[in-house]
Write a structure and sequence with these properties.
By secondary structure, the protein is of the alpha+beta class. 32% of the residues lie in helices and 14% in strands. The chain is globular.
């Protein structure tokens, strides 16, 4: 599976193949990404409100954001029994957050309400440039 996709990957339990082992975190309730320097090409599996995403530590720590704090060991992260990092937020706009972190730009969703939703997520994750982009679009 490619980390280039901005679309969430949906986890299904009907697959005959066993789930892949955790990439960066042991199967515990909590873990820390201390010492993430040098792990930029390591893939991380994230479950945001039931939507599953794959990305690299490099993308998550690229900008000064809450995600950087989470994946550089400054904030505690939680995992499920299969090693997926859990974030208790709606996953609806998380793909857009990841695209913005990767590229520094993103196609905003259509409609004022959707942009407001993305703005709320950008504020939560402290992605300031995306906050400003959404706010400028809403004015």
């Amino acid at each position: 599976m490619s980390g280039d996709s901005c679309l969430p990957q949906h986890h299904t339990s009907t697959s005959s193949a066993p789930p892949p082992p955790p990439l960066a975190c042991p199967k515990t309730k909590t873990c820390s990404y201390r010492g993430a320097v040098g792990l930029g090409n390591k893939y991380v599996r994230i479950n945001v409100g039931g939507n599953l995403f794959y990305t690299t530590l490099q993308v998550l720590t690229k900008q000064n954001s809450m995600l950087k704090a989470m994946f550089s060991g400054k904030k505690e992260v939680f995992t499920d029994k299969d090693g997926w990092i859990l974030i208790d937020r709606s996953g609806k706009h998380f793909g857009s957050i990841l695209c913005f972190l990767r590229d520094g730009t993103v196609t905003l969703p259509k409609g004022r309400q959707a942009v407001q939703e993305l703005l709320a997520e950008a504020k939560y994750y402290l992605v300031q440039d995306l906050v400003e982009l959404c706010q400028n679009t809403l004015q």
